[in-house]
Structure formats: structure tokens, C-alpha cells
């Protein structure tokens, strides 16, 4: 810096050049001093170069030999290297295959399960595949394809299981009548068993009833082997003989499609969807089942099929209730049963009203009782059904009354209205066995002899008893007290006596061309039937075990019925006699202007008195016991005689006072007086 600042660089350069020259001279001195050593070193180097060349040739030669010798080793080493690489690759491949093979096996197993329709195990396999195996090999392309297929497989399982459920629902809809028929057969067997046990209580100890066995087996879920699963829903059952044991209703149905579908939807998280679908479909089926056919009332089989379907429906629902957790609940079942009960009762009221055959009504009642007992065995309340049966009982009574009206008409029309002749002891005992009649005097008489009444008396009496038996049949199994049964029978019998039998008797009495002899016989017959009423009271008491002294016991009105009929017959006798008298009086031909009377009574009056004499002879010669003859016949004859005399005297007076008779002679009056004296005589 000082050189540049003082502008002395020229001088500085000169000095620098001088210094360089000094250094060069020093170098040259030093080189000259060491030159010989340098020459020696060069000589040594030349020698070394020669030796180095020799060494190089030796090394090259050795290397060539080594290379020639090592080629085979290098090849072997390359082969070894390749083997080691392959071995490593194989080991890695085995490891990867060890991971992949279970995945492929599980996928193959899944496909096999899908193919064999084992959907619930397939769903379990799918879960294992998705959560356990696939994550370990997720980077492989085929695994990604599997992962993409899993939702599709789930949906497929879902659809197929739902299809199985639909097939099951359709199948049980078609076969519900068979299921119900079986359940009702079981109930019938149980009832028969209960009857046997009640008759022989000693044999019932320690034995489990069939219904208990069925109920306990109902609570067990039916486990079916995956290899033997049947998706049809209904197993074929051959018709059993009456003596063979009826299979349980649950034995007829394979519920595995429901269980599988429920499990599958539960695993898939769609249980609520499944429950709603199942309940909706079953409600629809319930409405179909509860719709009665239009011609159901025509035959008992129509009612039986209707009941079988309803029972079959609720047997299935009860089994589902007890073997699944929450698929259906008690509230749902109760709601369905309430609907079923109201619709069934309405249908029965409508259709039973068309029925006019008491036998069919009785069979229907027995069928309804069996229907109620069957469902009661499954825990359903059936009180309303028994209440409805009491309504049907009134209708049954009406159909019985119509039937017995025809029976009574036939008996009364076919009767000969003459005392029953008895030729021997056997016939006598037979009639006494049919009708409660005792007469010491008649028993003493020798054969042949006659009962005072005609054949319609024992026939009517026996038909009344048959009617009582028919009423009693309806009251069986209705869970009524003996007092209620007694009251029901007595009320129905009263209707039979006061309405049906009374009308039939009145029709016979009032019909045209009825003879006086027939009317008299009707009076005798009704008197004996009136006396038999106390025996009918005893008959009812014996079959119901309710004493007539019991409070509120209805009394039979038979006495009134027969009294009314007898009074009507008596009135008809009096009326008939008066009509006959009028017919004779129409023949009267008085000559009111006659000058002389005849020598005797008028011909018409003689004929009239002859007719009356023969008529009253019928009354006085009636067969029968002394009481009947003296009281009933005598009283009727006296009253008839008084009535006839009164009517005759009034009519004769009218003849005199007729407006057409303007004048008459003493001879005509004397002739009239002869006729009056004949009447007095």
C-alpha cells in the first residue's frame, strides 16, 4: 500500500527483479552441488524399471493363470448366488402363500356354503374373512377383488335368506289348516285323556300329560344340522290312524328358515327391519285366514277348515314367540288375537244364523268348544267364545223347536185317536216303560185290554225327553254350573211345551172335520200328559242334579199347556155339537098355518135327539180308569149336554120369534109343543 501510495512501484519492481535473480543463482548453486546424487538416482531408477517390468510380466502371467483357473469358480459362485436368490424367493413365496392360502380356503368355503344355501354359516365365514384374514394380505390384487365382493355377498345372503323366509311364510299359509288340524287333534286327545283320568284318578299319578310335554318341547328351539337343512318350511306328514299318536304341531313345521333369517339380519344389523317385515306379512296372512268362505255355513267341514287355519296361524305364532327372542312379543300376539277373536265371533254369528239343522248347530258348538280349548291350551283368552256359545244356544233352541214342531205334527197326524189295545203282558210293560202310567184296576183286567189314551201320549212324552236330552247335549263342555244347565233346559222345555206343542195341539183341535170322538180322546190324552209333568220335573232333576226346591229354579209350565189344550178341545166339542144342532134345525119345516097337530114329534127333532143320544153314549162308554171316567168324561158330558140343551132351546125360541112368522095357528103351536115335550123327555 505504501508502494502505491508513494508512487514508487517502478523502484519496487526493480528491487523485486533483483531478488528473483538472487534466488535463481542460489538454486543453481544447490543443483550443481547435488548433481551426482541426481545422476545416481536416475541410474537406480532405470534399474528399478527393468526389474519392475519383469515383475509386471510375472504378475500378468500369474493373473492370467489365476483368471483361467478362477473362471470355473466364478461360474459356480454365480450359480450359488442364483440358488441363494431363488431360495430366498421361495421362502418369501411360501411365507406369502401361507398367509394367502387360508384366505383362499375361506373364500372357497364361503362359496361352497353359499352354493349349499347354508347362509348363516356363510355369513360367519364372511366375517372371519373380512376381519381376520384379508387384512394380512390386503396389498394383493385378488384380495382387493374379494374386499369389493364382500358387500355384494352380504346383500346376496340377505336377499336369499329373505327369499327363504317368503317361501316359509307362503308354505305355512298353505299348510296352516293342517297345522291347526293337528293341534285340535292334540286338544281332543288331551280332553279324552282328562276324561279318562277324571274317571280313573289313580292312574294319573306321576305321569306327565301330553299337553305339558308339548308345551315343554315348544319352548326348545329346533336345531337343524347345516347339512340337512330343509328350507321348504313344512315337513310331510302322512295321515295317522285314529289310534296312533298325533304328532305335535311343532313337528310339522321346520322353523329353521325363520331362525336363520333372524340371525342373518341380526348379524347384519337389520334386525328391526326383519321384525317389521315379518309382523307386517303375518298380519296380512291373519286377515286372509280370518276371512270366512261365503258358503261356510253349508257344511261342518267349512267351519272346521276355517277353525283349523286360525288355530294353525296362532300355533305358529306361539311357537315363534317362545323360540325367538323378540321377533314377536306378547303385546303383538294379544293384538292379533283380539282382532282374530272379534272377526271370528262376527263371522260365526253371521254364518250360524243361516243354519236350520240342530244337528249341524250342535256339531258346530262342539267344534267351537274344541277350537276354544285348543287355543286356551296355548294361553289365549277364550271367554268371549263361550259367551257367544250362549247366544248360539238360543238359536239352537229355536232350531230344535222347529224340528220338534214337525215331529209333533207327524205324531198327531198319524195318531188314530183311539185307546191303545194291549194283547199281552209284554206289550203292556213296554208301554208302561215308555210312559209313567199306573192303574190298579187296569192291571187286574185280563188281556186283551186297552189303555185309556191313544198312541200319541207315550210318543209325545218320549219326544219331550228326547228334546231335553238334545238341550243337555249343547250344555256339555260349556263350563256351566249345574244350576245354569238346569235353568237352560227348563226354559227351553217350557218353550217347547207352551209354544210348539201347544200350537200343534191347537191346530189338531181346530182343524176341519175333526170328530167328537177324536176331541174326547184328545181331552183324555192331555189329562194323562198333564199328570206326567211331575215325572218330567223329576227327569230334569235327575240329569242336572238340581233339586226343584232350589232358589230361582224355573218351573215347568206343562200343566198349563195341557189344561189349555183340554179346554180348547172341550170348547170345540161344544161348538161342534151346536153346529150339528144347527144343521138339524135347518131341516125343520113347520107349517105355522096347520089346523091340526101331528101325532108325534117332528122327524128332524127325532133324528137330532137320536144323534145326541149316540154322541153322549161316546162320553159315557169311554175306556179308562174310574177317575177319568167319573170326573173328566162326566164333567165334559154334563157340560156338553147343558150347552146343547141351552143352544137347542134358544134356537127353538128363535124359530117362533122369526120375523117371517107373521101368524100361526093353535095346531102349529101344539105340534111345536109336542117337539118341546120330546126334548124334555
TrEMBL record:
Keywords: Coiled coil, Exocytosis, Transport
One Gene Ontology CC term in the entry: plasma membrane
Entry's family note: Belongs to the SEC15 family.
Pfam families with a match to the protein in the record: EXOC6_Sec15_N, Sec15_C
Segments forming a coiled coil: 13-83
Originating gene: Exoc6b
PANTHER family: EXOCYST COMPLEX COMPONENT 6B, SEC15
Statement: the UniProt record of this protein carries the keyword Mitochondrion: no
Domain Exocyst complex component EXOC6/Sec15 N-terminal span(s) in chain numbering: 15-184
InterPro entries: EXOC6/Sec15 (IPR007225), EXOC6/Sec15_C (IPR046361), EXOC6/Sec15_C_dom1 (IPR042045), EXOC6_Sec15_N (IPR048359), EXOC6PINT-1/Sec15/Tip20_C_dom2 (IPR042044)
One GO process term, biological-process aspect: vesicle tethering involved in exocytosis
Domain Exocyst complex subunit EXOC6/Sec15 C-terminal: 384-680
UniProt name for this protein: EXC6B protein
UniProt source species: Alca torda (Razorbill)
Amino acid at each position: 500500500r505504501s508502494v502505491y501510495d508513494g508512487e514508487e512501484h517502478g523502484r519496487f519492481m526493480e528491487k523485486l527483479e533483483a531478488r528473483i535473480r538472487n534466488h535463481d543463482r542460489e538454486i543453481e548453486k544447490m543443483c550443481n552441488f547435488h548433481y551426482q546424487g541426481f545422476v545416481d538416482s536416475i541410474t537406480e531408477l532405470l534399474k528399478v524399471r527393468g526389474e519392475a517390468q519383469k515383475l509386471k510380466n510375472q504378475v500378468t502371467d500369474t493373473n492370467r493363470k489365476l483368471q483361467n483357473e478362477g473362471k470355473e469358480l466364478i461360474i459356480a459362485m454365480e450359480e450359488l448366488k442364483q440358488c441363494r436368490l431363488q431360495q430366498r424367493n421361495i421362502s418369501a413365496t411360501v411365507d406369502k402363500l401361507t398367509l394367502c392360502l387360508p384366505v383362499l380356503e375361506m373364500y372357497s368355503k364361503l362359496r361352497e356354503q353359499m352354493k349349499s344355501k347354508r347362509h348363516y354359516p356363510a355369513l360367519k365365514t364372511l366375517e372371519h374373512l373380512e376381519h381376520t384374514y384379508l387384512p394380512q394380505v390386503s396389498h394383493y390384487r385378488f384380495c382387493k377383488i374379494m374386499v369389493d365382493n364382500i358387500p355384494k355377498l352380504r346383500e346376496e345372503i340377505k336377499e336369499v335368506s329373505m327369499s327363504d323366509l317368503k317361501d316359509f311364510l307362503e308354505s305355512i299359509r298353505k299348510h296352516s289348516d293342517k297345522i291347526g288340524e293337528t293341534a285340535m287333534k292334540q286338544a281332543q286327545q288331551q280332553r279324552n285323556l282328562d276324561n279318562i283320568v277324571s274317571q280313573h284318578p289313580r292312574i294319573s299319578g306321576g305321569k306327565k300329560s301330553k299337553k305339558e310335554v308339548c308345551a315343554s318341547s315348544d319352548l326348545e328351539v329346533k336345531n337343524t344340522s347345516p347339512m340337512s337343512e330343509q328350507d321348504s318350511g313344512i315337513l310331510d306328514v302322512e295321515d295317522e290312524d285314529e289310534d296312533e299318536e298325533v304328532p305335535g304341531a311343532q313337528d310339522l313345521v321346520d322353523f329353521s328358515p325363520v331362525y336363520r333369517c333372524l340371525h342373518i339380519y341380526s348379524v347384519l344389523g337389520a334386525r328391526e327391519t326383519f321384525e317389521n317385515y315379518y309382523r307386517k306379512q303375518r298380519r296380512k296372512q291373519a286377515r286372509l285366514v280370518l276371512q270366512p268362505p261365503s258358503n261356510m255355513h253349508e257344511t261342518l267341514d267349512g267351519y272346521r277348515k276355517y277353525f283349523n287355519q286360525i288355530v294353525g296361524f296362532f300355533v305358529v305364532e306361539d311357537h315363534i314367540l317362545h323360540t325367538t327372542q323378540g321377533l314377536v312379543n306378547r303385546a303383538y300376539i294379544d293384538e292379533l288375537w283380539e282382532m282374530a277373536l272379534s272377526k271370528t265371533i262376527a263371522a260365526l254369528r253371521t254364518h250360524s244364523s243361516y243354519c236350520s239343522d240342530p244337528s249341524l248347530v250342535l256339531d258346530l258348538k262342539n267344534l267351537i268348544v274344541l277350537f276354544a280349548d285348543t287355543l286356551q291350551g296355548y294361553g289365549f283368552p277364550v271367554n268371549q267364545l263361550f259367551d257367544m256359545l250362549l247366544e248360539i244356544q238360543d238359536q239352537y233352541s229355536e232350531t230344535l223347536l222347529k224340528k220338534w214342531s214337525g215331529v209333533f205334527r207327524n205324531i198327531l197326524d198319524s195318531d188314530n185317536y183311539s185307546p191303545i189295545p194291549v194283547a199281552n203282558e209284554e206289550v203292556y210293560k213296554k208301554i208302561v216303560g215308555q210312559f209313567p202310567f199306573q192303574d190298579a184296576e187296569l192291571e187286574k183286567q185280563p188281556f186283551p185290554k186297552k189303555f185309556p189314551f191313544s198312541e200319541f201320549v207315550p210318543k209325545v212324552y218320549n219326544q219331550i225327553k228326547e228334546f231335553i236330552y238334545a238341550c243337555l247335549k249343547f250344555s256339555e263342555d260349556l263350563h256351566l254350573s249345574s244350576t245354569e244347565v238346569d235353568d237352560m233346559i227348563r226354559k227351553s222345555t217350557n218353550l217347547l211345551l207352551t209354544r210348539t206343542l201347544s200350537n200343534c195341539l191347537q191346530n189338531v183341535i181346530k182343524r176341519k172335520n175333526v170328530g167328537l170322538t177324536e176331541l174326547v180322546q184328545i181331552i183324555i190324552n192331555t189329562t194323562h200328559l198333564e199328570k206326567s209333568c211331575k215325572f218330567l220335573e223329576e227327569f230334569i232333576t235327575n240329569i242336572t242334579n238340581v233339586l226343584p226346591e232350589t232358589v230361582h229354579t224355573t218351573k215347568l209350565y206343562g200343566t198349563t199347556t195341557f189344561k189349555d189344550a183340554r179346554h180348547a178341545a172341550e170348547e170345540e166339542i161344544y161348538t161342534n155339537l151346536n153346529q150339528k144342532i144347527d144343521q138339524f134345525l135347518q131341516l125343520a119345516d113347520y107349517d105355522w098355518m096347520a089346523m091340526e097337530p101331528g101325532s108325534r114329534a117332528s122327524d128332524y127333532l127325532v133324528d137330532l135327539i137320536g144323534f145326541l143320544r149316540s154322541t153322549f153314549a161316546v162320553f159315557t162308554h169311554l175306556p179308562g180308569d174310574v177317575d177319568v171316567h167319573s170326573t173328566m168324561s162326566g164333567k165334559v158330558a154334563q157340560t156338553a149336554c147343558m150347552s146343547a140343551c141351552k143352544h137347542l132351546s134358544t134356537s127353538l125360541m128363535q124359530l117362533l120369534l122369526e120375523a117371517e112368522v107373521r101368524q100361526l095357528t093353535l095346531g102349529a103351536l101344539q105340534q111345536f109343543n109336542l117337539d118341546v115335550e120330546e126334548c124334555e123327555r
